[in-house]
Design goal:
This protein has helices at 2-14, 35-46, 58-79, 84-96, 104-108, 122-135, 151-154, 189-201, 217-234, 239-250, 256-263, 265-278, 289-296, and strands at 27-31, 50-54, 98-101, 113-116, 141-144, 164-168, 178-183, 205-210. It is globular and about 55 Å long. The longest helix is centred in the N-terminal third of the chain and has 22 residues, at 58-79. Mean pLDDT is 92; it is low at 1-20. The protein is an alpha/beta fold and 313 residues long. Strand 4 (113-116), helix 6 (122-135) and strand 5 (141-144) form a beta-alpha-beta unit. It binds 3-keto-decanoyl-COA and 1,4-dihydronicotinamide adenine dinucleotide.
Length: 313
């Protein structure tokens, strides 16, 4: 443990500047350009890496580029308060480092690091990684941003298990400072060190966690959110009052229902259903009638304009 701490302190010292590049990595491919992938592409490009951002269609990619530009406009307003020209240049330079494509091989053939941020579905992730394993150089490191699936189970689709780890970002990626870096029992020390270095190079605070369900944050956060949903389903309180209570009584920036809307009800449902299947005896993880109903109605939260709350103007 002591030597691990020493290594991390050395890594932290050598990456005190957020613009310092990780020497092992020049080019990064981010697959999935939704809520998370767009943010991951943004912070990676801001740190100076060239980024390929991949999705299934141009509509998703164009939406991602718009989201990134809006986010950069927001953050540079404060960063370059008195230097609007710098802000314009910073946004342009960052955007220029991002290449969007619907062809997964375009970036995979050239990238040193691949970050997968597609739907929370093990079969979809397996299909993607088994393809990537065939087309990527054998030096390329693979990672998943999964919220709830074991990294080792996703890595079953590839032969390079020593070059597979977890990079779990938080939403909204440009704002949330944390990055959980996950090591499976087969991730090599060299791969893990490179992932920690990458995290620090993009300005995140990294925490280390074994490949246990939910890692650190979600293992604690998800049961709390499930409890809130059950409380509402029992009729103990309205979802608005539960949100108000947790914000004003516990100091959380968002209440649980605002957060579910923010994360996306489809992703929440994937997590609930997956953990219910994985832990059938655990009463914490049960399907929610309300969430199932909202997803069936297409009310996926902020991203669709409506979830528990209505965001349409
Ligand atoms: C049941 C199953 C569920 C399982 C879920 C699992 C999901 C996962 O795997 C892991 C997760 O990500 S969990 C979610 C973690 N995220 C949170 O908890 C966010 C909670 N909310 C917040 O922190 C603030 O409301 C927040 C920061 C969002 C907004 O803050 P405010 O309410 O104060 O609003 P603003 O005043 O508008 O923003 C504050 C500062 O942040 C800047 N900002 C916000 N969004 C941005 C964005 N997208 N890009 C760039 N900048 C952004 C905003 O400009 C402002 O900056 P300052 O002016 O400098 O203060
Ligand atoms: N929403 C959240 O707050 C968080 C989500 N995560 C995880 O990140 C991953 C992505 O979640 P979100 O960004 O919220 O989802 P999202 O639904 O916003 O975006 C997913 C994107 O992946 C694309 N996609 C699906 N299959 C693909 C494929 N085979 N190839 C290329 N693109 C594909 C979709 O078109 C969509 O644009 C999930 O594993 C989720 O559990 C992790 C942390 C927080």
């Amino acid at each position: 443990m002591a030597s691990k701490l020493v290594i991390n302190n050395i890594i932290k010292r050598s990456f005190s500047s957020t613009s310092a590049l990780n020497r092992q990595i020049n080019s990064v491919t981010v697959i999935g350009s939704g809520l998370m992938g767009s943010g991951i592409a943004q912070v990676t490009a801001e740190a100076g890496y060239s980024v390929y951002l991949v999705d299934q269609n141009d509509t998703a990619l164009n939406k991602a580029l718009k989201t990134i530009e809006t986010s950069l406009t927001r953050s540079t307003k404060k960063k370059f308060n008195k230097e609007p020209d710098h802000a314009v240049r910073y946004i342009k330079d960052t955007m220029d480092r991002i290449v969007t494509t619907t062809k997964v091989d375009a970036g995979a053939e050239k990238s040193d690091l691949i970050i997968e941020a597609i739907v929370e579905n093990i079969q979809a992730k397996h299909d993607l990684f088994s393809k990537l394993d065939k087309i990527s150089p054998n030096t390329t490191i693979f990672t998943s941003n999964t919220s709830s699936l074991p990294i080792a189970e996703i890595a079953e689709a590839v032969s390079r298990k020593d070059k597979f780890g977890g990079l779990h970002f938080f939403n909204p990626v440009p704002v949330m400072k944390l990055l959980e870096v996950i090591k499976t029992h087969e991730t090599s020390d060299a791969t893990y060190r490179t992932l920690l270095e990458y995290g620090l190079s993009i300005g995140k605070t990294t925490v280390e966690c074994k490949d246990t369900p939910g890692f650190i944050v979600n293992r604690l956060l998800v049961p709390y959110m499930f409890e809130a949903v059950k409380m509402y389903e029992r009729g103990d309180a309205s979802f608005q009052d539960i949100d108000t209570a947790m914000k004003l009584g516990a100091g959380y920036p968002m209440g649980p229902f605002e957060l579910i809307d923010y994360v996306g009800l489809d992703t929440t449902k994937f997590i609930v259903d997956g953990w219910k299947k994985r832990f059938p005896e655990d009463p914490t993880f049960q399907s929610s009638v309300v969430i199932d109903q909202l997803v069936a109605e297409g009310r996926l939260g902020r991203k669709s304009g409506e979830g528990f709350y209505n965001y349409k103007k």
